[in-house]
Design a protein that fits this description.
131 residues; mainly beta; Thrombin, subunit H; 6-stranded antiparallel β-barrel; 1 helix
Length: 131
């Protein structure tokens, strides 16, 4: 078995485990509209397809803001390597399907970074939940 055939098999296996689906969009501001004095936004779809969400970390800590206890969860968004190269930091993923846990449908996740790795079987993007 060559390295190429091993990585191809690994990518097929990883994608088979991506049983959720999502749509990822990018919002960009346009030049000032002189009539409305607003900066119109354009929303572009950059990816639609399978994904997987996993929460890597769940921390609870005391904050000095009104004595509140704040929890932090850091999701990782997994995407197929071959079809998700256009996803960038700041893009928003909306979960559109999740057969194993329907409560995840509609959750919005902001991509916070990139993932690059030789022989990667999945693109693993650090993210945060958008509320």
């Amino acid at each position: 078995m060559t390295a190429e055939t091993a990585i191809t098999a690994g990518r097929r296996f990883a994608e088979a485990r991506m049983t959720s689906t999502c749509i990822i969009t990018r919002t960009t501001e346009q030049p000032l509209d002189e009539d409305t004095l607003r900066y119109p936004e354009t929303v572009t779809t950059v990816y639609t397809g399978p994904c997987k969400v996993r929460f890597e970390t769940a921390r609870v800590f005391n904050r000095d803001v009104a004595g509140q206890i704040v929890g932090e969860q850091l999701p990782i968004l997994f995407l197929p390597v071959d079809t998700s190269a256009g996803v960038n930091r700041g893009d928003i993923a909306t979960i559109t399907g999740n057969p194993e846990d329907p409560s995840l449908v509609g959750v919005r996740i902001r991509v916070n970074g990139q993932h690059a790795q030789t022989w990667a079987t999945a693109r693993r993007l650090p993210a945060e939940i958008v509320t």
